[in-house]
Design a protein that fits this description.
alpha+beta, Jelly Rolls, 9 helices, DIOX_N, iron, four-stranded antiparallel β-sheet
Length: 376
Amino acid sequence: MSKCTDEEDPTTRKPEYDRLSKLKAFDETRAGVKGLVDSGIKHVPRMFHHQFENNPVSCGIQVSIPIIDLEKVKQNRTTREEIVGKVRNASKTWGFFQVLNHGIPMNVMEEMKDGARRFFEQDVESKSRFFSRDFTKRVVYNSNFDLYSAPAAKWRDTVVCSMAPDPPKPEELPAVFSDIMLEYSKQVMNLGYLLFELLSEALGLNPDYLKDIDCAKGLVMLSHYYPICPQPELTLGSSKHADNGFLTILLQDNVGGLQVLHQNQWINVPPTPGALVINIGDLLQLISNDRFTSVDHRVVTNSVSPRVSVASFFTTALVPDTRLYGPIKELLSQNNPRKYKETTVKDFITYFNSKGLSGTSPLPHFKLSKPSHGDK
């Protein structure tokens, strides 16, 4: 009888890592990443381990995304034209900018962050009433929308609420922050209308153009909670990705962690008191025919303090809408031919979600193989 090696002996073989069962077990707790931290874990579970890209984090000379002051944007034509120029440049070269004097009161922003924190720091039973993976529901709480499709899980929990075009009733929302969600979302819609006016003008279109084609019709609000992480070098709060909607307005607390990929370097976006972070989404890049840029970004974790952010996405992803979106005809010319085929928002988002936050842009999938007059 031949002698068995260790590799052949099933009693000494290490069991294979069953990732799916680990994901299911985590999901079934309904406690999210915060539940793991509250349980006292000292090591980040393997399902959260990320392969980090080689792009360096910018150090030394401080490079920062543009900050645009919106004061007097409606009072002074010269000032407005200057602001439009800054929005155009930031949307083209960075895909990101911060805005000050945007009209949303500081106390409203602070209460929105506090409300989000209250939700996530409730007991599991209170949160789990909203737990679901059915994103057609008005309110959905879970950890990682792409838990089963992404290469690695992210170190964050999220509550998703559809706030427009059909605002929810207060009783449909989590009681711990229902009032402030409704107030903050109204304020964000007003700011969104202004930003879409400025973006329309930056494209050389009439101010209402983007609003008239329903870019500001839908609003989905994602409140994120990034718990303290025992091993920040192993995982990410949000992996490298670009947003899939038209425009995002981000409210972040004073913890920091957001990084934008600019010229192959990760640039930190430190919180600026009173400012909101604005970024161009994939669909706005598509309809602007690459005039504006949707840029990759991520959130790093830390071992000191939990982070709260509220991302408001202008998208009709949760609205039944058959409108086709393609490059805006008024922007096309012999020198700037159409680069993308038309798509519905639903089809675009379905393709995006099938890949999860994998760091791979969905835009190439919708590019025409040959622009009508040659490539740019």
